[in-house]
Each structure stands twice: as C-alpha cells, then as structure tokens.
Amino acid sequence: MSRDQLEQVEALSSRVSSTGEFEGADGEHAESREFNRGSRAKRAANHAHKRLVVVGETQVPDNKFKEVLKEHGLQLRKTKIDTLQINVGKMCNLTCHHCHVEAGPDRTEMITPELVDMLVDSAERLGVTTVDLTGGAPEMCTGFKEYVRKFRAIGCRVMVRSNLTILVAEGYEDFVDFFRENAIHVVASLPCYSRENVDKQRGDGVFEDSISALKKLNSVGYGQEGSGLLLDLVYNPGGASLPGPQAGLQQAYKEQLGQDFGIEFNTLYCITNLPIGRFYSDLKKAGTADAYDELLQSSFNVATVEHLMCRNTLNVSWDGWVYDCDFNQMLELPTRAGAKPVHICDSEAIANITGNFVATGNHCFGCTAGAGSSCTGELL
To answer: Model pTM?
Structure first.
C-alpha cells in the first residue's frame, strides 16, 4: 500500500474509534494505522474462537484445512470476482444466539459514504454483477437507500440480507416498497418454520414479526411467480449438527408456511453454522465445541472445494478492509497482497486480486462439510 493510500485509509479510519464510534475529521488515532493492529488484535484476542488470532501474521497456526487441501493436491485461489459482499455495519435490532457477527443494538460500527464511493468504483472496475449487502441489519445503516441506488445505477444486482423483523419496526415501514421499486433480491433469515424454534434462537416475538414481514413482502409481489421479485429464505440448524438436504427442507418450508400463513417464497438456502462468534461461545458452554469441530472435519467433501464462494467473492468490512468471506472478516483473517492486508482504496491490489491465495483456517471445514455451504445455500 502506498503512502498516499495509507493516508487515505487513516483519514477514513480517524472518523471511527476502536469501538466504532464516529469522531470529528480532525480526530487522531494511532491504532488506525494500516490494519488497526492494536484495536483489532485486542478484539480478535477476546474473540470466543481464539485459535485464529492472526493480525499481523501471514500464516494461521494449526491450519488443518490447508493440510487437507494439500493432501488432495488442491489450492484455493481467487477467480474472476463477480460478487462484492459488503458488511455495512454491525448494528442490529436483534441479538441472535447463532450470530457470527455478534451484531446487536449496541454496536455502532457503520460504513461511510466515502467508502461506499470507493466500493462503487471497485465494482465497476472489476465488472461485478452482484452486490450483497449484509450486517447487522443492513437496513439500519445510515444512508442505506442512497447506497443501494448507487450500485443499481451502475447495473449491479443488489441482494439485501434481512432479518425480516426490521421491516415491520417503527421507522422502517417503507423499506418493502423501496425494495420493490429497486428490484432488490431479498434474502431473509428464518431458521425454522415453527414459532418455538425461531424464538428460542432469535428472541421472543421474532417469529410473529418475521411472518408479518413475509406477508408484507408477498403483498407487493415478492416470492410470486412471474414477478421478478426474488424472496429467498435462510435456514441454519439450531444446534451442533449439519443441515439436512436442502431440497427436502425447502419443500417442508413451502408446505408449512403456505398452509399455516399463505406465505410464498422462491428458494430456501441451507447454511451450516460455522464455529465462530456467539454460536461457538454457546458450543463451549455446552461442552460440544470439540465434537462439532470433529463433525465438520470428518464430513469434509472434496467435491465442494471448486464451488466455494470465497473464490469469486470479495468481502469488505464496514471500514474498508478486504476479506475472502464474511467469516474470515469476523476472525480478522484478511486478504493479503504479499504480506500486507488489502484495503479497498488500494486499487492496484484490487485490480490484481485474481489468482491470489484465499486465506483459510479450520473454520473452513464448515463450508466443505457434507453438501457444502455458502451464503446461497448448499453447494452440491
């Protein structure tokens, strides 16, 4: 990264403290230099999944996943990037037990307009076709609607990963119409079709609000055949197990939600819980963390590797650092150009990202277990 680019990162980072709170443009933070090594190392060191504290290092200790790839004569490298996944911030109206982001109402980290402009430029230069907005609850990001319009203006398809409940919350009542007007692909979290299981994982009353939001989306055409308005749901297991077959679960969801509530949707994505964040903390408390790690590793399926989304996706944090996936972001495992972490303002590194090695760790077994897992469901 050049001196000019580093100064650009510092100028952006200086508006945000190590806890994510915005400060004046003249604020000075020594820890904002390069990869915010001090504050990021502290957060990583305090992470429940401590095996991947890698800030400032180029190798992940005890990387069994890398060894398994080597045994099969495989390497994970970037191909042409067609998806730009952006974590716009960690603020959320929910505090879910399975959340790998550890999002919540008290999180203040949020992307800036300057960074969004850089991302729009990068999306154009890379020929990105899909922009995938996640959080937190991305709808709570200040400037969210304007950001969506900017990506739509350059011809990108925009996906928004919604927790559904935000769409019926006070102050967000018009977001469903905004989604429809901009043909947003809505990917909505609904970990089960039963009230008991959803509320247990996500909080009391979440199921009822989710159903209300789905009905609202259906009322403007989402999930309806021929509307062109895509509404996909996300399932993840409630405990330390792999998801069942996606086709069977999708049929069960469609039958149950249709019979009980008249709800329609397009596709169900089955996503494996990776052992990080609050989910891993819960596994540790229950004494099942080691058994779950062993399950993921013993379920490795070599056929999934060529389909992994980390190969054709760039993931970017709210403060502009680049990762191969959202899980790597939460573990502070950045994409590197040589030994240096890559920031979105480093246009040369971004332009030459194809062919780079994907950063891996033992958590990657979660995406290669069984039928595989990605942000768009099973791989095989």
So the answer is: 0.86
